[in-house]
Write a structure and sequence with these properties.
It contains 14 helices and no strands. Helix 3 packs parallel to helix 8, helix 5 packs antiparallel against helix 6 and helix 8 packs antiparallel against helix 11. The protein is globular and about 65 Å long.
Length: 344
């Protein structure tokens, strides 16, 4: 505990610093003093600066923190359930389910309703969020039902991958049959972004994540037991099938909410649990889960900062930035771990 507490403090401070930097930097340079005055409610500051802070940068920073933490925890849960280091939030096709829900709404709206959803502004964004949640939860319910019928994690993993391929095939057909404008709107959604959430949507998103993340922490005990293997866990009195189902539901709901508000954000859920294990040198989920959430929040803030650095017009796709930032870090962690094993 003496070794881990300083690391937790450093990560927490890093998140605060990164959040402040996210408020400071962008295409418009706003001094720290003015940012503090705006956050304290001083209305004497230029109106355009106030709008940038309150309607753009602050919502993006909070969304990145919550989305990064949620995806990282979801990835940790999937890797624990399947005991597979390559498992991530999209491993069971839940992210693909979100994409399929959005595809039905976006790609069919122009053909059926005569008006492209991409032209409806806020109403269109709300419809896409609802469709993403419905699609993700529908796939998750299917996975939960299948998990009660099959034995073994490998079979469930394969079925989840097949569901993802099926969803992608349907999306491909819808793209082929849809107008170019709707296809473009769907592709833009699929790039992922922390900038879609603002106003009341941002408040609802933060509240939902503040509820779901503590609920996920309640599963740390069965997750620790699942690490021992199904047979040993059963001997300890754990209902393995029920525990597995609860962890999958928790992970699926986290992915569904994040995907609905931010689009499909890749790589964070896969990479961050490995990074947290390398930093804290533990497999105990009582420590690993909050550590993973903090690492996910910090990495998401870094990616959001890079995506809208000065010099870029608009913002880069978040998915591209997450891969560019995360892949070298995880490669370094894995090589370092491998080198340590060889040295021993």
């Amino acid at each position: 505990m003496r070794q881990t507490l300083p690391k937790i403090i450093i990560l927490t401070v890093a998140i605060v610093v990164l959040a402040i930097v996210n408020l400071l930097l962008g295409s418009v340079d706003i001094p720290l003093k003015n940012v503090c005055q705006i956050l304290l409610g001083n209305t004497d500051q230029p109106e355009i600066w106030q709008n940038i802070i309150w309607k753009s940068r602050l919502p993006q920073a909070l969304t990145a923190i919550m989305a990064g933490a949620g995806l990282a925890v979801s990835g940790l849960q999937m890797q624990t359930v399947f005991r597979n280091p390559l498992a991530g939030p999209s491993v069971l096709g839940i992210s693909n389910g979100s994409a399929l829900g959005v595809a039905f709404v976006v790609l069919l709206s122009g053909r059926i309703g005569g008006v492209a959803l991409s032209r409806l502004g806020y109403l269109g964004e709300a419809a896409m969020s609802v469709a993403a949640i419905i699609g993700a939860l529908a796939v998750m319910m299917l996975i939960v039902w299948i998990s009660q019928k099959v034995k073994g994690n490998v079979t469930l993993l394969i079925i989840g991958v097949m569901i993802g391929y099926l969803a992608n095939a349907i999306i491909g057909v819808l793209k082929f049959l849809s107008p170019e404008e709707d296809v473009k709107a769907f592709v833009v959604w699929g790039l992922g972004s922390f900038s879609r959430v603002s106003g009341d949507e941002m408040i609802l998103f933060v509240v939902l994540m503040c509820i779901l993340l503590p609920l996920a922490y309640l599963l740390v005990k069965p997750m620790n037991i699942l690490l021992l293997g199904d047979r040993y866990a059963s001997n300890l009195g754990l209902n393995v099938k029920q525990a597995r189902m609860m962890v999958i539901i928790s992970s699926g709901v986290l992915v569904a909410i994040v995907t609905a508000y931010c689009g499909p954000i890749m790589f964070i859920g896969l990479a961050v649990p490995h990074l947290a294990r390398a930093i804290f040198h533990t497999s105990d989920h009582r420590l690993l889960m909050p550590a993973t959430a903090l690492c996910g929040a910090a990495l998401a803030l870094i990616c959001n900062l890079i995506a809208r650095m000065p010099g870029f017009e608009g913002a880069l796709p978040v998915n591209s930035v997450t891969a560019l930032v995360g892949a070298p870090v995880i490669a370094a962690v894995l090589f370092r771990k491998r080198k340590g094993e060889v040295g021993e």
